Amino acid sequence: MMSKFLIFSALFSLVFAKPTARSMKVREAIQSVPAGYVRTGAASADTELNLRIALVQNNPEGLIDALYSVSTPDSASYGEHLSKEEAENFVAPTAQSTEAVNSWLEQAGLSAATISPAGDWLSVSVPVGQANELFDADFAVYTHSETGKQAIRTMSYSIPTELEGHLDFVHPTITFPSPISLRPVVSTPSNPGRRAIEPLASCSTSGITPDCVLSLYGIPTTKATQSSNKLGVSGFEDEFANKADLATFLNEFRPDLEGETFSLQTVDDGQNPQNASEAGLEANLDIQYTVGIASGVPVTFISVGLENKDGDLMGFLDIINFLLGESNPPQVLTTSYGFDENTISFSLANNLCNAYAQLGARGTSILFASGDGGVSGGHTSSCTDFVPVFPTSCPFVTSVGATQLTSSGGETAASFSSGGFSDYFGRQSYQTSAVSSYLAFLGSTDSGLYNTSGRAFPDVSAIGVSLEIVIEGEVELVDGTSCSSPIFASNIALINDALIAAGKSPLGFLNPFLYANPGAFHDITTGDNPGCNTNGFPATTGWDPVTGLGTPNFAALKAAAGV
């Protein structure tokens, strides 16, 4: 009782003392305003900020150890995925941390809501004036000069020293929104535009159909049988998947799957209206090439609303927390969106990366498109040093690059396929040998432009140029690593179907398994990914930061999985 009284007294004095008298420590800071943004004035003191507070997790290192234990093929615990409760035990804050932070907020007249299953995230609404006092911050209005997008942010903020070890970080504070919010990792190639559906060769540089994908990778057309095996597709930015377009797509390209559809889940007041004019290029692509490739696997479109658009990446966190709250999350999740890694604070990126580790430890394979800017990042941009992409740079997800068909019917690297080395996350043991060999091959080329000790990506690749999709009843061709991620995810979903049918565990976190079986891929040895006024990285024999280990050989991957 005495200790609680002392904590209460200390926090009371902290809340109501003037900032200069408080014992504060800077928690996060940036040295300059991000490119394109200018400060346009102080934020109104009574403007409400919706802040997220991350509490210090009690044992994140133990979570990562457990993730590798259940995901490494030669581990005695391989495939013994954690339960919901076991995973949460690693990331739940201590009772002391929860009490200390909530007491501090309560003494300031604020009430926080718990917004994650493990209790490691809180949400609180606070006026700008009070936020400035609480965090020794200077929240101001910043405007992006090209887009006119505005955001209230601060260049630095502090927390009471007594909360160190309890309060991890606060968002949104120093991470500015992407000028093109949550821009989808997809581009439309030069082509005549939309056209009426007409028969084309199944494998042609002028148009890739599901039949071509199935043929390239030896994927069976036999329908999956396990209803418990699910494939999730992330949707952001009011991109909606249209069922009528899917029906047209299947009727033309997979008539044996006619009548197949997808289910819907929503996060942050997400929607999926079915007006033809609201069909999204990205959403239709992702759904058509999961339903159309993963024959018979139940597919769920998870539509994340714009409730937290000012925080950008919070939608990414919300979808993961939503799935972590489920007793049976999907065994595969594919996402075709991303950000340049250098636009995000390390604390936020690291926390979200650990959330992926939590879901992976429970048996979900998480795949992300690697990006469409070559070594320039998520999209082509001006740069000096090479730009990694997040979340695909997180070591606990599987990053998928893109290839394109050659005139001879083989595959080569797509020039836009983003790849490289993270500046935030170190190289993982599962890829040490493969990446070391590549760096030796590369030698001094572009030395100093990338982090040679960083987590390397992509891990794998799949076809990503001139895919035919249906939108508003007509065919359009699309390019992008966002084509590649749902295709590779469909391969994994079908292998999981066979595993579950055999009474075995799904693959879960893929990377240790993938790198342990390099022979299960079609090695892509030509092409590169230029950017930043360089030729980028060249593809070569073995792993490379353009196409990863290569494109899937379904039969070999399935055999490596033991089915």
TrEMBL record:
Binds 1 Ca(2+) ion per subunit. Keywords: Calcium, Glycoprotein, Hydrolase, Metal-binding, Protease, Secreted, Serine protease, Signal, Virulence, Zymogen. It comes from Phanerochaete carnosa (strain HHB-10118-sp) (White-rot fungus). It catalyses: Release of an N-terminal tripeptide from a polypeptide. Ca(2+) binds at residues 523-524, 542, 544. GO terms for biological process: proteolysis. CDD domains: Peptidases_S53 (cd04056), Pro-peptidase_S53 (cd11377). Gene3D superfamilies: Peptidase S8/S53 domain (3.40.50.200). It holds the Pfam family Peptidase_S8. Residues 1-17 form the signal peptide. This is tripeptidyl-peptidase II. The active site is at residues 282, 286, 482. Its main location: secreted. Its cofactor is Ca(2+). It is found in: Secreted, Extracellular space. Its EC number is 3.4.14.10. One of its GO terms (molecular function) is serine-type endopeptidase activity.
